[in-house]
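The data are passed on as follows:
___
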Amino acid sequence: INCTGLTFMAVDEGNSVYDSRHGCNAIIETSSNTLVAGCKNTIFPSNVTTIGHFAFYGRLGITSINIPDSVNEIGINAFSDCTDLTSATIPSSITTIGTAAFSNCTNLTSVYSYANNPAIFNFGFSDDSYSDATLYVPTGTKEAYQSKESWKNFVNIVEFDATAVKGVSANNESADVIGSYSIEGKHRPTLQKGLSIIKMSDGTTKKVIK
């Protein structure tokens, strides 16, 4: 739990309880598809359904998190004390966020939630995140977030077009960048500092931080 600089994880292929499927740099409980331990180089497999308690606790070097749509639960303290984290993207599939899941993420500035009907949870973020970070929510849902426990604690809640980008693809070195957009879906002539959406020539999109 205190291996803050861990960069590599792998489970022996003969292990019947845990696995590191698709070279994901994480330890996954096979029977439940729960990611129980990860590091800054973890790539979330598309069939993981739960991020376990303390899975990324205190990991350094993680600057952004894009949780896949297959995940429906984020465990207690899952990303707490990830002090390099600046941006977190939470998909609409999430139904449970554990206590202190993002606590003490002291550099967190942006949280993107894609749920039109946000899950109710308590004490998921630290007070400084509620006051300093911006919560981005789908267009037309700001009032819903302002009425839900924990979400309503965010001082800055901004709506964005969540349909403009339907997913984040893996890197494709053979494709060219053909468009750059803000997280709200507004076109930009050039890639700007911060979190952006880029559209590739093969039709895929991905989020990048400059």
